[in-house]
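If your schedule permits, I should be very grateful for your opinion on a structural question. Please examine both parts with care and let me know of anything in them that strikes you as inconsistent. The record follows directly beneath this note:
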Amino acid sequence: MVWKRLNDHGKNWRHVYKAMTLMEYLIKTGSERVAQQCRENIYAVQTLKDFQYIDRDGKDQGVNVREKAKQLVTLLKDEERLREERIHALKTKEKMAQTSISNHNSSYHHHCICVHVPASSQAWPQSSGEEDLQLQLALAMSKEEAEQEERLRRGDDLRLQMAIEESKREKAKPEEGALMELSAVDPWGGPTASTASVDSAGPSPPPTVNAPSSSGPWGTGSTTDPWGHRSHVTCRQLG
């Protein structure tokens, strides 16, 4: 699992860094076989000295991985230093185990049960099976942390996507209003539909004026000669 984590992509730089931290802990406090295996596969650690990843904010997140890789390579190549580091780490682990065990109290059904285990038995694995169990426990804890970070990352990505969609919708609202206003105005200055309907009817006709009566006050009517001469006809008054 540790070697698999070391080959993760740049965006999973946290997994790589935690795997290297776990490896350093196992090298210093675990079996000597762990250190031997790491020496045999030191090339996998050396390649991480060139690890690169720049996040969206422009921050170099690969610097921690590169520094940790340099420290591990130096430690694995220097056997004397590794021996001293192991002695110091095991003593520190023994002190911490002794302190935690002496202060450990567990409650079950309101009864206090104090357990005291020799610190030496906690510092060193009693068998190869116990050593494998400790390694599996450490790997399980690392895997659980990685899965938790992945869930948090997915939640952040989902919230970011929702914020982007909301921003797009807010931006689209004023644009739609502006388009509706522009559609109501004729860019060529033509009349609106209501004005055009009124203009198409044309102007109202002039008032009708009745023509004057063809009879004069004396009962005299005038006729028109088809040859252009006007003749007058006088009607005699009867009786």
Q: What stands out?
A: Residues 161 and 239 are 114 Å apart (CA to CA). DSSP finds nine helices and four strands in the chain. The mean pLDDT is 70. The longest strand covers residues 105-108.
